[in-house]
Design a protein that fits this description.
Blueprint: H1 8-15, H2 21-33, H3 35-53, H4 64-79, H5 82-94, H6 97-117, H7 147-156, H8 158-170, H9 186-190
Length: about 190
């Protein structure tokens, strides 16, 4: 059985005899009913007994890297800035290639995923129209004389429509006769 998550730290303090009397009594009352917390107290008590029984050798020396890490953390703590503490932690972590390489890989993957999801959708532009507008200022050729083109120009501006009709009326007509429905007579249609 596992100990109650809220009682792990108080149990460790109880094993060290660091709780006040009231808290210790409340925790001991809980230990009578909870098997997981009782086992955890036994385990932690064994660890604390072994640590207190261990012989401390005064001639042990710390390595230079340990000394640098301690000094870095102390200076970050002294400045009181959370950003400095984070910077020290990141600098120390990033120097280890076993951490830096997966972080770089994860960053590349994250950028690729974000670029595919945040990319603007391809917008298809409409195909160029074969109908030429009479209102275009740089247009030198008039649109074909069709009803649809005349309606389009008339809807834009009646003045432009009048100018278009005038230009088309003044140009030279082809030598080929143009037949319209009004030129046929009923007698011709029966042939």
């Amino acid at each position: 059985m596992k100990p109650c998550s809220k009682n792990r730290k108080p149990i460790a303090w109880l094993a060290l005899d660091a709780l006040d009397v009231r808290q210790a009594q409340e925790l001991r009352a809980h230990l009578e009913t909870c098997e997981g917390c009782r086992r955890y107290l036994v385990e932690i008590s064994n660890v604390t007994q072994r640590l207190t029984a261990a012989e401390v050798k005064p001639d042990i020396r710390a390595s230079e890297s340990f000394h640098q890490r301690v000094v870095g953390r102390l200076s970050a703590e002294k400045s009181g800035s959370a950003w400095a503490t984070v910077a020290v932690q990141l600098r120390r972590t990033m120097l280890d290639w076993r951490v830096a390489l997966p972080m770089v890989g994860a960053t590349v993957v994250m950028i690729a995923v974000l670029s595919t999801f945040l990319r603007r959708p391809n917008v298809l532009l409409p195909a160029p129209s074969s109908v030429q507008l009479a209102s275009a200022p740089n247009l030198t050729r008039d649109p074909q004389p069709t009803i649809a083109n005349y309606q389009m120009v008339a809807n834009q501006s009646l003045e432009e429509f009048d100018e278009l009709l005038t230009r088309q009326g003044n140009r030279n007509l082809p030598l080929v006769p143009i037949y319209t429905a009004s030129t046929f007579t009923r007698a011709d249609a029966s042939d």
